[in-house]
Write a structure and sequence with these properties.
21 strands; 707 residues
């Protein structure tokens, strides 16, 4: 009887539009609450209730503070793993390994291990950042309100307040301070970092095992990689005494176990509107993927010219392939009709909710339509902007350097010595080939522009590229310095052909940049701010954290395999699987094992874990993220995600999406039985060592030792 009466009452209410809308919203909000382990959470706003309710684990302030101070940023996610300043990071994307290599010591090929403190190699230019504290400064930024002024003026006022807050905080604390915005400038936090600049390389495996499987296995699982590096932070002429570090798990992870990650995820886009996602799917990604595919073909062709060219091509193509695979994954996610439907439902729900509040509807109701109109406008000139303003049509490092010189000399951009350096390694032949390719694309896409016709005339792209590259003096650091410090007119008075090219392109590029800033980005930013303001009223920030933006985040999940096309993929790959895969492909690249792994095979326990996967939320930038268990022990280090996880950039789904990590026990197995690195393994395992007691405050100049 009660059930019938309840059904009658609910049915009656559902006939009323207002209650029907609210009922749908409640169902949607409830289903969102029950989502899987989504979240790249702020360290000052961890998911305490969610983790407690789902996993019966209490995240305490003491636990969070320790994890924060043990987590580091060494050109990316990393962590302290011993009380003597030892830092665990990833191998891939670490340019210092190339910079430290010499003719007689190819670290990428042969690996490196400093058996003594004196043999550790100093890494020039590297910095390690440790986040000391976070302060909410939203009220200070928004103080006084911004009513009655334009959006651009409001942004300027915020910028002035941010500069003052950062300056005051740095002077007061002596720390590096940065105000970070979240939720489209609705929330602002002050991040305060302690910075260390004496970083030394301790251990690096051979690239063949760090990137075992090469590009075919990249962004995929099952996987077998020893993608790690170990560095040490020094301070005052001796290893840093770090009280906050992650103790090493001797056993590694267990299936079904709760784990946590910390790291600096580069960026997610989970709050974009449907029209923005459609723009990426239909306009941006197709162009960018095609551009990168063609450039990859050019680099591969260059690599066939000889052994040295092949070596350089392999270095250049890795980053390109990595980005290309990631972009394809994002693109694939946006082509998923189910995912787009979920985003559409989410957008519809909040728009329906806003309609219930006349004031909120007046303020934010039209935000989605304005963003949609901006996307349609941007689509009409996106390619032109990419080729000219972004420089895709002049694809050589020389052109980017020329632009940096012109903008720094004129004061348009701040002085940045790093922008005035050519990438290493570098070859004019490859630069000529990539420039030829891009000039051909420029003529094809923008040949109707008077400026382009005037720039390239009727000359073949290859001929023009050869003249530009062979005629430039930008490889000479003294020539570059003279242009930068010779006053604002120095570039204009130069006869360098690529400087001249950049000067001719700059007015058009500047106009396009202004058009994007004023007609696209300002519309997006202004309306995204309104949408996120409404979102925070609708759901708050307890159920979904702000989009990732390169600053420290916390995520959680479980160690768990997945199903793929009816096949169960196990959570862990052991050493046996490594040797089986090498044998399957005849021990040839990219499945060729380093010689020491072949020679030491008999001593290795084949059952020891090597790589494993978790459901923890992660995205590009999380490589190097330390993974800890309930006890705070390090059980692994993240180095990749699988293809389904790439679509998590837009919406989280852990059905098949996984983060891929190196197993803590597997690392010890390699150090002890392959590399004879017992002192290093002992340090990770927390065993006392006399070698640190002997180090006094002296200048230990790194030698050319190690192996």
């Amino acid at each position: 009887m009660r059930d019938n009466l309840r059904s009658f009452r609910i049915g009656g209410l559902m006939n009323k539009p207002r209650f029907r809308t609210l009922f749908v919203l409640c169902l949607w909000a409830f289903s969102s609450c029950l989502a899987a382990d989504e979240g790249l959470w702020l360290f000052n706003k961890p998911p305490i209730e969610i983790v407690s309710q789902k996993y019966r684990f209490d995240i305490t302030p003491k636990w969070m503070n320790h994890f924060q101070l043990a987590s580091t940023n060494l050109d990316g996610s990393s962590a302290f793993v011993s009380p003597h300043g030892l830092v665990l990071s990833v191998h891939h994307g670490t340019p210092v390994l190339i910079e430290l290599s010499t003719k007689d010591r190819d670290i990428l090929k042969s690996g490196f291990y400093a058996r003594t403190l004196e043999e550790e190699l100093k890494c020039s230019g590297m910095e390690l950042l440790v986040l000391q504290g976070i302060e909410d400064v939203t009220a200070q930024i928004h103080e006084g309100g911004q009513a009655g002024i334009s959006y651009s003026d409001a942004v300027k006022v915020r910028g002035e307040k941010i500069t003052e807050i950062e300056k005051t905080a740095s002077e007061k604390t002596g720390l590096r301070c940065r105000v970070v915005s979240f939720h489209a400038d609705n929330i602002f936090h002050l991040y305060q970092y302690k910075v260390y600049s004496d970083i030394r390389l301790v251990f690096s495996p051979e690239e063949a095992i760090a990137f075992f499987g090469g590009d075919p296995d990249n962004f995929d699982y099952p996987r077998q990689c020893l993608d790690i590096c170990l560095f040490r932070v020094w301070e005052d002429g001796k290893p840093l005494e770090s009280s906050h570090y992650l103790k090493w798990s001797l056993t590694g992870p267990k299936e079904g176990e709760l784990i946590f990650l910390s790291g600096t995820p580069g960026g997610t886009s989970r709050f974009l509107t449907c029209s923005q996602l459609e723009f990426l799917r239909d306009v941006s990604y197709p162009f960018e993927i095609a551009f990168r595919q063609k450039k990859r073909e050019v680099i591969h062709a260059y690599g066939t010219r000889g052994p040295e060219e092949a070596r350089l091509a392999s270095i250049k193509v890795w980053a390109l392939e990595n980005g290309l695979k990631a972009m394809r994954g994002y693109f694939s996610g946006l082509q998923d009709t189910d995912m787009m439907r979920k985003k559409a439902d989410e957008e519809k729900a909040i728009r329906e909710w806003i309609k219930q509040d006349p004031e909120l509807e007046k303020e934010a109701g039209g935000a989605w339509n304005e963003i949609g109109a901006a996307q349609a406008q941007y689509a009409s000139f996106y390619r032109k902007n990419a080729l000219i303003a972004d420089g895709r049509g002049f694809d050589t490092a020389y052109f980017q350097l020329a632009r940096a010189i012109i903008r720094q000399a004129s004061g348009e951009t701040k002085a940045d010595p790093r922008a005035l350096e050519l990438p290493k390694p570098f070859d004019d032949v490859l630069e000529t080939m990539t420039l030829t390719n891009s000039l051909e694309l420029l003529k094809k896409e923008c040949g109707d522009m008077v400026e382009v016709r005037w720039l390239v005339r009727d000359r073949p792209a290859e001929e023009l590229a050869k003249d530009l590259v062979s005629g430039t003096k930008l490889k000479d650091p003294e020539f570059v310095r003279a242009l930068v410090h010779g006053g604002p007119d120095a570039p204009a008075l130069s006869n360098d052909p690529i400087i001249k090219l950049a000067l001719l392109v700059e007015p058009v590029a500047k106009g396009l940049r202004a058009k994007v800033a004023e007609e696209i980005r300002s519309v997006e930013n202004r309306n995204s701010e309104l949408i996120l303001k409404a979102w925070l009223k609708f759901k708050g920030d307890a159920l979904r954290p702000p989009d990732a933006n390169g600053f420290l985040r916390l995520s959680f999940g479980v160690v768990k395999g997945f199903m793929d096309q009816g096949r169960k993929i196990p959570y862990c790959m052991d050493y046996r699987s490594l040797y089986e895969k090498a044998m399957k492909y005849g021990n040839t690249p990219p499945y060729e094992l380093p010689s020491r792994f072949v020679q030491r095979k008999a001593s290795i326990d084949p059952n020891v874990g090597f790589n494993f996967v978790t459901t923890a939320d992660a995205i590009g930038g999380n490589s190097g993220s330390p993974c800890i268990n309930r006890r705070g022990e390090l059980v692994g280090i993240l180095f990749d995600i699988n293809p389904p996880a790439l679509a998590n950039r837009f919406i989280y789904d852990d059905t098949k999406a996984r983060s891929i990590l190196v197993h803590s026990r597997g690392i010890l197995e390699a150090l002890l039985k392959v590399y004879d690195a017992k002192p290093l393994a002992d340090e990770l395992m927390g065993k006392k060592q006399n070698r640190f007691r002997a180090v006094r405050r002296t200048d230990l100049t790194p030698s050319a030792g190690g192996q």
